[in-house]
Specification:
Bound molecules: adenosine monophosphate
Strand content: 5-15%
Radius of gyration: 23 Å
Shape: elongated
Number of strands: 13
Structural class: alpha/beta
Number of helices: 19
């Protein structure tokens, strides 16, 4: 199948060909005709599937072939398309795609997100754009200052809608909806379909086309996965060894906590390996700088928390390292999905200490495959080593209300910070002990709500999935994976939410 056969104009086909795309991805093959038809769309697809082009290309086609519904006010063109994303990084990335795909068209776009000076954004908006990509909080700041006019919007896209809800953006979304004209095309993209997403879709979408592409809980075959068992205290040493020994460049390393990310980046830098950390406590400028140095290849190692890395698309990223295993098994799939994208080969290495064996077992159940173990000479497990969860793993202190744009200050059951994730692990641990693990199809928010009722004082002792009472079980899981879990029910209801966060 070709892009031209989907009904896209020559200018758009030329732009994607110049990007190196030969043929549409499955989500593009389904979404492009659906969006071109002008109707609403509910699409189940994650970052990495090519979903951005799936909505941007047909939107560009529509804009380039139809005049604006609302005439230009005072000479400035009206905003015809609004794309909302949960994170600043994703917003920037989506707008980059808009620019790339519209290079042969006379269509203008801009992006607004928090953490940076609002004034240049105001200037840009005043001059008029066709397509606005925004995070909800900053968009509402502009609306409050009357520096944005959304009354001419013809198409609304909610990208990664599940993340936006997980991050507590539902009220902001509702406020944004009130600023839009009732007559418009609505496109909702979500990797998961919790009850909340279904409720949002029910209220927002009018007889939507339903599209779903393969979930990526099945990890891509283009990613070579390995588990390297190692004592906790020697993880950093092993990582430095691997990077140096194999001369790895562009290594994306995941840690569970912001503090852990900072500490690791500093230690690696001391080892002579250029490294920076990226997480929600960093200023937007620091995040942008680290990311661009990493993308350009001048920064050897980027250490990231799950939150900061959400939606990052780095072309041909060769190495992903799990310095800590994630508390939420789905995050493993998202993390390693950073590599081996769009057909390129990649490698995902997990440094797993014995205290993480329960997390490893959960991951292998989810992806329904055994990840090969490989012991690195000189880094064999020491039976006398103390392998206890880090103090970093302690749930973060809760704040009174969720904050946008700052991972460390956000808390509460709707937030995806360490506390929420820790609470999830706790609830799973308790559930397993009582033989009452949350149903596979249940969304994480549901699990979190349940876990939020657990006494907070008990959380630190139960963090992670391995409790001190389970050493034998932990050791066994390191040696051999758990049997595969039964397949999840197919269809929209089989998706599962997970926590996240973002920036205003
Ligand atoms: P997305 O899921 O939109 O973040 O896209 C993931 C990656 O796939 C991006 O690097 C895109 O540039 C790339 N991509 C999108 N569509 C195609 C295609 N048809 N062929 C090859 N790569 C693509």
């Amino acid at each position: 199948m070709s892009f031209a056969s989907l009904g896209l104009s020559e200018a758009l086909v030329r732009a994607v060909t110049e990007r190196g795309y030969d043929s549409p991805t499955p989500i593009q093959a389904k979404a492009i005709p659906a969006v071109l038809s002008g109707g609403d769309l509910l699409a189940g697809a994650q970052t990495g599937t090519g979903k951005t082009a799936g909505f941007v290309l047909p939107i560009l086609q529509r804009l380039s072939t139809t005049p604006p519904r609302k005439p230009a006010a005072g000479g400035a063109r009206p905003i015809r398309v609004l794309i909302l994303t949960p994170t600043r990084e994703l917003a920037a990335q989506v707008e980059e795609s808009v620019v790339a795909y519209s290079k042969h068209l006379k269509i203008s776009s801009t992006v607004v997100f928090g953490g940076v000076n609002i004034n240049p954004q105001i200037d840009r908006l005043r001059r008029g754009v066709d397509i606005l990509v925004a995070t909800p909080g900053r968009l509402l700041d502009h609306a409050g200052q009357r520096t944005v006019d959304l009354s001419g919007v013809e198409v609304l896209v909610l990208d990664e809608a599940d993340r936006m809800l997980d991050m507590g953006f539902i009220h902001d979304i509702r406020r944004v909806l009130k600023l839009l004209p009732p007559q418009r095309q609505n496109l909702l993209f979500s990797a998961t379909f919790s009850d909340e997403i279904k409720a949002l879709a029910d209220g927002l979408l009018n007889k939507p086309a339903l599209i779903e592409v393969a979930r990526r809980n099945a990890t891509a075959d283009t990613v070579r996965q390995r588990v390297l068992p190692v004592d906790k205290a020697r993880k950093r040493e092993l990582l430095s060894h691997l990077v140096r020994e194999h001369n790895w460049f562009q290594v994306l390393v995941f840690t569970r906590t912001k503090h852990g990310a900072n500490r690791l980046a500093e230690q690696l830098a001391k080892d002579g390996i250029p490294s920076l950390a990226i997480h929600g406590n960093k200023s937007q400028n620091a995040r942008t700088r680290a990311l661009s140095e990493f993308k350009s290849g001048s920064l050897q190692v980027l250490v990231a928390t799950d939150i900061a890395a959400r939606g990052l698309d780095i072309v041909e990223l060769p190495h992903v390292v799990n310095f800590d295993l994630p508390n939420v098994p789905e995050d493993y799939v998202h993390r390693i999905g950073r590599t081996g994208r769009a057909g390129a080969e990649g490698e995902a290495v997990s440094l797993v200490s014995p205290d993480e064996s329960g997390l490893l077992r959960d991951i292998e159940r989810l992806i329904r495959r055994e990840i090969p173990r490989e012991t690195i000479a000189g880094f064999e497990l020491d039976p006398n080593a103390r392998n206890e969860p880090d103090v970093d793993d302690r749930p973060a202190r809760p704040s009174r209300r969720p904050m946008r744009g700052d991972a460390s200050r956000s808390a509460g059951p709707r937030q995806g910070g360490p506390r929420a994730q820790g609470a999830y692990a706790t609830s799973r641990g308790q559930g397993a002990a009582q033989g009452a693990q949350p149903a596979r199809g249940a969304s994480v928010p549901q699990a979190q709500r349940a876990s939020a009722q657990a006494p907070r004082a008990s959380a630190p002792a139960q963090r992670g999935s391995v409790t001190p009472a389970q050493p034998a079980r932990a050791a066994t899981a390191m040696a051999a994976p758990a049997p595969a879990a039964p397949a999840r029910p197919a269809g929209v209801g089989g998706f599962r939410g997970r926590p996240s966060r973002s920036g205003r």
